[in-house]
Amino acid sequence: MRLSAAIASQMRLLMQLLADALRVAFASFFSKVGYGRTGAGAGTALSVTPVERKVDEGRAQNEMTTPTSVNYHFTRQCNYKCGFCFHTAKTSFVLPLDEAKRGLKLLKESGMEKINFSGGEPFLHDKGDFLGKLVQYCKQDLRLPSVSIVSNGSMIKEKWFQKYGDDLDILAISCDSFDEATNQLIGRAQGRKSHIDNLHKICSWCQQYRVAFKINSVINTFNVDEDMAENILQLNPVRWKVFQCLLIDGENAGEKALREAERFVISEQMFQEFLERHIGVPCLVPESNEKVRDEIMRFLDCREGRKDPSKSILDVGVKEAICFSGFDEKMFLKRGGKYVWSKADMKMEW
């Protein structure tokens, strides 16, 4: 009996080791095949910054991931032509509203607390109403603590704030320069419209309709020597997220790419010098390429310089899909991924 028990114990251990080896092998394989800022096929993607938790089950310790904060790139279409864009318009597909809601509900049930809608340009589809309905659903039906949007700002109208503003916590507008000529060189422009004037207009609407205002900037060869401190301090966003220009194979680099972003790339040293020049801006949140880690509701992994997608959460559920997202909890926290993201908790002076 003792011998049989010992053999059984050894067999269980062997099977556990084999399962672990297979899990690592499959994770390694999938990390080399879809991305995390969005994936293959159609146009809607999920980049995720989950929180990893360890749960004891008897003597075994299994790792589980919770998609606490999710970026949903539901469209690839955009009216700007930014030369460094890493999520290009390879398709015009947008997931139907009901299916999008179903995926968001699955994410909420798996622990999502913050959703960020992006693109492409998210206000382009259905003149912003599709986006507004998703915002309302996430806040009113799913009761998420934080709902945010990243936009270039060119398509936003005041009536959108009047209809959907109550349910939006944060609106981030992308602005890479406070010089109109530089924005034109980058491609962040539409005709002769002033991107900077529009930025100020949206900032005032955010104040009026009680939406926290945020600015995102991609630092590249055309703006790396610019001093933006005075303008940022004047606009006073709750966060100024500063990214180092990133190359993603098949998106803005490589033979199949729709952009050629190599000429926009700066070194880590140049990026650090830009950050040092703006050290006096309290809302600055930097994100270099060393810290960066989505198509039909897929999690994406960009660790290998590509956008490698998991299976869709609509097909396999959140837990299975997120296993291949390449999440690094320590890096997520290090780059300021967890912060006060509900406007109810921000203590804003409207």
From TrEMBL:
It comes from the Eukaryota. Pfam families: Radical_SAM. GO terms for cellular component: endoplasmic reticulum membrane; lipid droplet; mitochondrion. One of its GO terms (biological process) is defense response to virus. Keywords: 4Fe-4S, Antiviral defense, Endoplasmic reticulum, Immunity, Innate immunity, Iron, Iron-sulfur, Membrane, Metal-binding, S-adenosyl-L-methionine, Signal. One of its GO terms (molecular function) is catalytic activity. Its main location: endoplasmic reticulum. CDD domains: Radical_SAM (cd01335). Its cofactor is [4Fe-4S] cluster. SMART domains: Elp3 (SM00729). It is a peripheral membrane protein. Residues 1-27 form the signal peptide. It is found in: Endoplasmic reticulum membrane. Belongs to the radical SAM superfamily. RSAD2 family. This is S-adenosylmethionine-dependent nucleotide dehydratase RSAD2. It comes from Gasterosteus aculeatus aculeatus (three-spined stickleback).
